[in-house]
Design brief:
about 35% helix, globular, about 20% strand, alpha+beta, binds ligand DP6, Diphosphomevalonate decarboxylase, four-stranded antiparallel beta sheet, about 350 residues, Ribosomal Protein S5, domain 2, six-stranded mixed beta sheet
């Protein structure tokens, strides 16, 4: 019998992935950039996966957050198929390849609420499988087969998912642009506006955007390439004001594409809109850009800021957006850093 347990954190995109050129292989129409949260303590938003392989297991089984799920799900099967192709029989002395496996995966944050749960979940699954079968080399292309954004959670720090050009997806991989230590005072504050499951899954919504939004092609072809270059420079030179403006503009454009999708997808709600206004008001008051918002496929805000603003921002947010949850419940893992994916 062999057991592996891994944790993998979520990543927060600053240049968004939205739209696939190949649905089956999960190949995007544009590059994207994100940062990966700290997973070291397991206190921040991450997935934890345990995989057990045994010659005595009669079937393969999967539990997500304690509930048994279908092992035949297409994306899980695609990941497994690709993993099996990469297994080196010499590196696996036992007959482990033919044993059945039991997979248990848990998120310590709301699932499918637009908080990158599938990214952390599939990154963790693929990382654990790679450990189980002693797979070497880049595994971001394997994680991509589970969920596109998952490939970015394979690496820590600042990560770019290069869309790639080849039809088979062999060059559609994630690369680390810079480690966490490059920008040590960068912080992410996540404001959970609503933790219920999102109305439109990212997968379905981006498919509808591909077939109906006329803005999406322009974004992918002409806007994102320049933005990716500028974002790489902003990260490299630690230019927060430039980084923040690009982040906010890209989030706004992604949600404009969602509105341009027919029928439209509404991910942001009134509270999300007031957080956007609050961020702009705060930056105006400070007479310089100190904080940036970004939203994925849900109403929850991810704020990027630097360490010296965190206390003040949290106090103001508590004042402006009071919550019925206890302070401890509301503010988790206040020291959010970015770091490497780890095996526990
Ligand atoms: C809005 O990775 O969830 O979070 O590849 O179909 O599984 P699939 O989609 P998914 O899409 C995430 C989109 C996003 C933006 C981003 O993370 O870049």
């Amino acid at each position: 019998m062999k057991i592996v347990t891994c944790i993998a954190p979520v990543n927060i995109a600053v240049i968004k992935y939205w739209g696939k050129r190949d649905d089956e292989l999960i190949l995007p129409i544009n590059d994207s950039i994100s940062s990966t949260l700290d997973a070291k303590s397991g206190a921040n938003m991450c997935a934890k996966t345990t995989i057990m392989a045994s010659p005595n297991f009669k079937d393969n089984k999967l539990w997500l957050n304690g509930k048994e799920e279908n092992f035949d799900a297409v994306r899980l099967q695609n990941c497994l198929k690709e993993i099996k192709k990469r297994i080196n029989p010499i590196g696996n002395k036992e007959d482990i390849i033919n044993w059945n496996i039991h997979i248990c995966s848990e998120n310590n944050f709301p699932t499918a609420a637009g908080l990158a749960s599938s990214a952390a979940g599939y990154a963790c699954l693929v990382f654990a499988l790679a450990k189980l079968y002693n797979i070497e080399g880049d595994i971001s292309g394997l994680a991509r087969r589970g969920s596109g954004s998952a490939c970015r959670s394979i690496y820590g720090g600042w990560v770019k998912w290069c869309k790639g050009e080849s039809l088979d997806g062999s060059d559609s991989l994630a690369v680390q642009l810079a480690p966490t230590s490059h920008w040590p005072d960068m912080r992410i504050i996540i404001l959970v506006v609503n933790e219920s499951r999102k109305k439109h899954s990212s997968t379905n919504a981006m498919k509808t955007s591909m077939s109906t939004s006329t803005l999406l092609a322009t974004r992918a072809e002409t806007i994102v390439p320049a933005r990716i270059n500028n974002m790489e420079i902003a990260i490299k030179t630690k230019d927060f004001a430039k980084f923040a403006e690009l982040t906010m503009r890209d989030s706004n454009q992604f949600h404009a594409i969602c509105l341009d999708t027919y029928p439209p997808c509404f991910y942001l709600n009134e509270v999300s809109h007031s957080i956007i206004e609050f961020v702009h008001a705060y930056n105006d008051f400070k007479k310089s850009t100190q904080v940036a918002y970004t939203y994925d496929a849900g109403p929850n805000a991810c704020l990027y800021t630097l360490e010296n603003n965190v206390s003040e921002l949290i106090s103001i947010i508590n004042e402006v957006f009071p919550t019925s949850a206890s302070r401890e419940e509301y503010i988790k893992g206040i020291r959010v850093k970015t770091t490497e994916l780890s095996q526990v």
